Sequence to fold (414 residues):
Amino acid sequence: MENKYRIDTEENREFLRSNAKALLKFGRQFPSESGASYYLGDDGTPMKERDRETWITCRMAHVYSMGAMLGDEGSAALSAKAINGLLGELKDEKNGGWFAGITKDGEVVSGKQCYAHAFVILAGSSALLTGIEGAEKLLQEALELYDKRFWNEEEGLCCDTWNTEFTVPDDYRGLNANMHTVEAFLAVADAAGREEYRIRSGRIIDRVLGWAKEMNYRIPEHFSKDWTPQPDKYKEKPNDPFKPYGATPGHGIEWARLITQWAVSEKKLSEKEREDYIQKAVLLYERAIKDAWNVDGAKGMVYTTDWDGKPVVHDRMHWTLAEAINTSAVLYRVTGKENYAEDYAAFLNYLDEVVLDHSCGSWFHQLDRNNQLKGTVWPGKSDLYHAFQSMLIPYSDTTLSIATAVCKGKSLSL
Fold:
């Protein structure tokens, strides 16, 4: 294996550094005139016929806030544009919160998504660290709205979706929104010193680990209103980008990283408790890798499996690989075990040989089981979030959220 794929070599640092710079260059055309983010095409050209969505705008604000902290020229202005979009056309001044998005004709996309609101918190936290104008206001309003509409203190979890007016909540409950809520809560705890959100993260994690243990560390994604798992839900639409049927190994991997980050940052845990959480994170990671990595005759990570670990959707999604890079590096840092460094090198080798678009830039977002380009779920290259983070997290302080680590100089420098 080449040195550029091996963690803690200078060649590896340079490989990540050069790709991080290339990603920042690729995404510079994202802002619309109002600041709301366009969905990006194969070469980074905006796909203006698609909705300008809140979650993508937040992700780009987050990425370019970190770009600004790293000294990338122009990143601060791009982050500021995205923040303006979140404080402008994407914000619902009448009913509160943020629209799911705006259509190409300027119409509102109906519904209020917990998923999108978690990303508003993340964007506000990162922009706050960068000193972007309006970030403090955005973050405060996002936290107040989230606490009022999405967080359930009794359950220690969040609901998923409301109608646009916040008068009718959907009965569906899901873990994707809760996963990104943990990410956002840890970010605001680090960026703004709001430790109550770190405590909430632990409450969510405890619930998730309970369900995971019951399912042999494959995490159920879908639930009824009373949080009863619905393992067969969405069987008719197995390749949905947000709510697919079955287990999503990429989420098992991502949860493993977030659980580890929470465990090593929560000072109230005893050493024994901390080690127990890390071991459970290891079980999630190892189950996902065993089920999904190189299991169907070609390199890559399958998108979903059934509850016995048999692949259902064989497509390779770029975000799953990004999370595998992140989590293998974090587990290596925390445990010191060489097998995680070996996994990390294998993932980067696959990234370089297959998933990186060396011609047009960024990463291919969806490949089929033979690693051929496919665009049924993720046409184009919507945003930079997963890919960019995976170029920084391997050299970041494991106790810190990524934007805070970058702000404190405890991550990869450009």
